Structure to design on (477 residues):
RNA sequence: GGCCCGUUGGUCAAGAGGUUAAGACACGGCCCUUUCACGGCUGAGACAUGGGUUCGAUUCCCGUACGGGUCACCA
């Protein structure tokens, strides 16, 4: 049974790279009918943010990820909050000491600092305490001299296989005798991770490739315990640009931010899954269930991917277009109400116009701002090469159509379109020579989400005629 | 600096020892059209670099350049 875990720190923010990792973990587990576990890594009190755990739950839920085990849903391998698991780590560290795979170290911070002072970074611990006699150790312990427990790195080379990067071999020379238990009795992250993953029966470890270099150390730990090594899947980061990762520090968009900007959870999930992973088929729009179905580790990329907001925007537009109208209306209603103060405007009809033209609902207001108020516009807007209209002849065309519309009895789209086209025909004009000036006079914009006759219907007869005469004023100025 | 990893159009990416090196976003053009959008068609645009191996390498190997990661009593 495949078991994967998502192990975020509750720092109050779910960034896109993290969420993507969670998705991959979820897909890999679910594809194989396995379990996806949530474990909260809250040992860093400095960075702990109140309410952050809720953000994690909320994010997973909104994204459509359901964890099988976790602090809120329980499970057989709890507790699922790292700070509640503290007791065990020391026990395991001492087991290693017993086996000669780890040792007490009483070196002071000062001594270690001094050790590093001379050389560049990368100076290893000199194993000063490795040679301490049993008596010395016991005496130190008796006297409550602060200590840490360090892993004793063996000589040789360590090779591990990563599902994405393949075989990686590192000379153990390059590794330091890392600290397992800190002087406050707490485990270091690396140690806690190995213990937790083993105790929780995690079979596949999926994480950022910044851990690629420390993976050999993990392996050495597993080997020291005689535990089975999990399958490793390291993934390249999601970048903001060629050089920088997408990060909280840079104030980059988080999942929450993207939602606030009007992106649909499904679109975000779909898009970020495709950042660093590609399916076998040549297709881009997938539901989360489809992703579970087709997700294959082999499609994971080795190199970083730059987050492209433009493409997310496009994809969101695709989701909106594919959306059921009622769902779209529900989503857009409040935006529409806010953007249109004029009484009597048919919001549903506006929603229909706008649906295939926006990528997020927040693009709606700018598109329809002319409804409440005709914007100031320049008469050059009347000039359109293809329609064969300009500032001069548009005046004639408007004068021609106003009386016709005044007389119009049926104020519906088909009738109005018919009457305008007929007028053009009767006067030997192109359709556009009537339609373009009308559209312009009614909207004061170069583009609108609908045509001239639809604008007439939308605005109503009175407002239509009012704006048309305003058009004449502008043209005669 | 040591070690590890990476490098296909502007971006996401497929791909394979022999291909006209897919596709998508963005961009240009055309068609459709009641403006725009949608839709359809189309154009431009890429294998970082030098050596090998090979009949043939963008694909395999080595080096170089560039980029990233990592070397904590942080997670």
């Amino acid at each position: 049974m495949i078991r994967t875990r998502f192990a975020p720190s509750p720092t109050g923010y779910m960034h896109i790279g993290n969420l993507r990792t969670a998705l991959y973990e979820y897909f890999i587990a679910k594809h194989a009918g396995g379990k996806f576990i949530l474990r909260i890594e809250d040992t860093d009190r400095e960075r702990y943010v109140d309410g952050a755990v809720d953000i994690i739950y909320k994010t997973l839920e909104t994204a459509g990820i359901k964890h099988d085990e976790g602090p809120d849903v329980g499970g057989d391998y709890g507790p699922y909050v790292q700070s509640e698991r503290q007791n065990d780590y020391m026990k395991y560290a001492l087991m290693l000491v017993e086996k000669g795979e780890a040792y007490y170290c009483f070196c002071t911070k000062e001594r270690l600092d001094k050790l590093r002072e001379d050389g560049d970074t990368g100076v290893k611990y000199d194993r000063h305490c490795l040679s301490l006699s049993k008596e010395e150790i016991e005496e130190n312990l008796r006297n409550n001299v602060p200590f840490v427990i360090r892993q004793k790195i063996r000589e040789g080379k360590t090779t591990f296989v990563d599902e994405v990067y393949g075989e990686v071999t590192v000379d153990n020379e390059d590794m330091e005798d890392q600290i397992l238990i800190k002087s406050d009795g707490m485990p270091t992250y690396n140690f806690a991770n190995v213990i937790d993953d083993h105790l929780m029966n995690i079979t596949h470890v999926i994480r950022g490739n910044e851990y690629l270099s420390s993976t050999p150390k993990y392996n050495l730990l597993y080997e020291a315990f005689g535990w089975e090594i999990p399958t490793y899947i390291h993934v390249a980061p999601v970048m903001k640009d060629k050089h920088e990762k997408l990060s909280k520090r840079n104030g980059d968009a988080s999942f929450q931010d993207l939602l606030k900007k009007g992106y649909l959870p499904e679109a975000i999930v779909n898009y970020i899954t495709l950042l660093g992973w590609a399916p076998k088929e040549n297709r881009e729009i997938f539901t989360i269930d489809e992703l579970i179905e087709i997700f294959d580790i082999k499609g994971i990329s080795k190199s970083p991917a730059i987050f492209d907001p433009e493409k997310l925007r496009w994809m969101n537009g695709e989701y909106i277009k594919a959306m059921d109208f009622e769902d779209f209306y529900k989503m857009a209603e409040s935006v529409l109400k806010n953007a249109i103060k004029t009484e009597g405007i048919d919001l549903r009809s506006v929603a229909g116009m706008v649906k295939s033209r926006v990528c997020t609902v927040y693009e709606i207001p700018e598109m329809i701002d002319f409804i409440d108020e005709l914007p100031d516009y320049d008469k050059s807007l009347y000039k359109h090469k293809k329609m064969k209209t300009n500032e001069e002849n548009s005046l004639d065309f408007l004068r021609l159509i106003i009386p016709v519309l005044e007389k119009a009895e049926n104020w519906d789209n088909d009738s109005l379109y018919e009457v305008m086209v007929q007028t053009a025909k009767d006067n030997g004009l192109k359709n556009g020579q009537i339609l373009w000036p009308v559209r312009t006079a009614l909207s004061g914009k170069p583009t609108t989400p609908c045509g001239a006759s639809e604008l007439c219907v939308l605005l109503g007869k009175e407002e239509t005629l009012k704006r048309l005469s305003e058009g004449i004023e502008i043209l005669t100025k």
User: Anything to note?
Assistant: Chain A has a mean pLDDT of 93. The domain at 3-83+238-306 of chain A is CATH 3.40.50.620 (Rossmann fold). The first helix of chain A runs from residue 16 to 31. Chain A has 18 helices and eleven strands.
